[in-house]
Amino acid sequence: MTTRIALLRRGILKKNDELAAVLRDRYSSAGVMVLNLVSSPGTGKTAFLERTLTELKSKGARVAALVGDLETDNDARRLAASGAPVRQINTHGICHLDAEMIDKHLEGWELDDLDFLFIENVGNLVCPSSYDLGEKMRVALLSVTEGEDKPLKYPAMFNSADAAVITKIDLAEPCGFDRELALNNIREIRPGIRIFETSAKTGAGMREWLNYLVVEAGSKWVVEEVEAQVPSRHKPGAEVQGQARTGRKFETIKEAKEFLIHWIDAEARRVGSPLTEVERQMLFVSEKGWTLPDMAEVQAAFYRYHDLVEYEEKVGKLIRSIQASAQAGNKDEAETWRQAVQVLSREDHYLLELMKGSGEMVRRRRSHMLLWLGVVLVAAALAALAIVMSHYFGGSRVYAPPPTN
Ligand SMILES: Nc1nc2c(ncn2[C@@H]2O[C@H](COP(=O)(O)OP(=O)(O)O)[C@@H](O)[C@H]2O)c(=O)[nH]1
Ligand SMILES: [Mg+2]
C-alpha cells in the first residue's frame, strides 16, 4: 500500500469511527441492543438471523434487521418472513457495511420502539472487521463446513468479536468437523470469548443463544421475560433454573457450588442487574478446588473488561439480599443455602471470600487503599518539610577546591 493510499484509508476509518460513536450514543439512549453479524458468504448468517428474529418476536421482543449485500435483496426478503421490519442495504461492490450506510438506512425508524436491531454484514472475512457500526456486540460466525482454521487465517475478524457462533452443527459429523480444534482456534485468537454451537436447521443451541441475548441486553422487556421464567423465591417449591431451593442434599462440592451460583445469577436478574456470562463464570474461580476447565481464559477476559472492586460490590450486594430475604422468609431456603455453603467450605473458593460478610472484603480493600494513601501523603509531607528545612537552615554545601600552596 502506498503512503497516500494508507493515509486516505486512515482518514476514511477515522470518519467512520466518529459516526459510529454518534450511532452508539443513539442506540444507547434509545435502549436498543445492536448486533453486527460477520462471516464469510454462505456461513448461515441469514438462516441464523431468520430463526433468531422469529423466536425473539414470538416472546414479544421488538426486533428489526438491516442486511448488507453486494447487489440482491434476497436476504431481506427471507428475513422479512419473520414479520420483523427489515431493510436491505446494497453496497454495489463494497465489501463491507460502514456507519454512514447504517445511518442512512435507519432514517424513518424509531429506535425507541426497538429492543434489538440486528445487522447482517456483507459476507466477507476481512473488510467488515475494520468498520465499527456503533454496535454493542459483534458476532463472528463460522460454519462447520468452512474449516477449523478460519479463525487463525482471519484473526482480525475473530479478535474483534464479542461472541462467536459455530453454525450448521447438524452437518458436523458428515463434514468430519473437529470441534475441539475449532474451539481452541477461536479461543487462541480471542481468549474467553463466548462460543455458541448452533443449527438454524434443527434449532440446536438456539435457546442458549437467545438466553444469552436476553441477559446481555438487560432491557426492561428482557428482565420481565426472564423473571417470568424464574419463579419467585417465596413460592413453595420455588426453583432456580431447575434447581429446587429447599430440601436439597449436596453430595459434591461441584453440586453445592453450582447451586449457589444459580441462585446468585437468578437474584441478579430478579433485581434487574443481570450478570454477564463472564461475571457469572468468575464466581467459579478457585485456586485449588473444583472449577471450570477454562478458568484462566475467563479471568483474562474478565480483567480486560471489568473492574474487580465494582464486581465484588455487585456480587456482595446480591449475596446480602439473598441472605436477608432467606432469613426473613422461608427458613428451609435459608437452611439449604447454609448447607451448600458448608459443603463448599471444604475447599478454598473465591465465592466463599465473596460471602465472608459479603462486601467486607471490598471495605477491607478500600481501607487498605486509604491506609496506603495516608502513608504516601505523610511521606510526601515529610519530604517537603525536609527540603524546606535544608533550604532555610542547612545552607548550601560548598565543595571548596583543595588548598594550594
Ligand atoms: N444444514 C444446514 N444448512 C444451513 C444452516 N444454516 C444455513 N444453511 C444453508 O447454508 C446456505 C447459506 O446460508 P445463508 O443463511 O444464506 O448464509 P449467509 O450467506 O451467511 O447469509 C443455505 O443453503 C442455507 O440453507 C444450518 O444450520 N444447517
Ligand atoms: Mg445472508
Explained architecture:
This protein has 405 residues and is of the alpha/beta class. It has 2 domains: 236 residues, Rossmann fold (3-Layer(aba) Sandwich), CATH 3.40.50.300; 112 residues, no CATH class. 53% of the residues lie in helices and 11% in strands. It is built from 17 helices and 9 strands. The strands form 2 sheets. Strands 3-2-4-1-5-6-7 form a 7-stranded parallel beta sheet, with helices on both faces. Strands 8-9 form a two-stranded antiparallel ribbon. The protein is globular. The N and C termini lie far apart (75 Å). 34% of the residues are buried. The C terminus is likely disordered. Bound molecules: guanosine-5'-diphosphate and magnesium ion. The site of guanosine-5'-diphosphate has 16 residues, from helix 2.
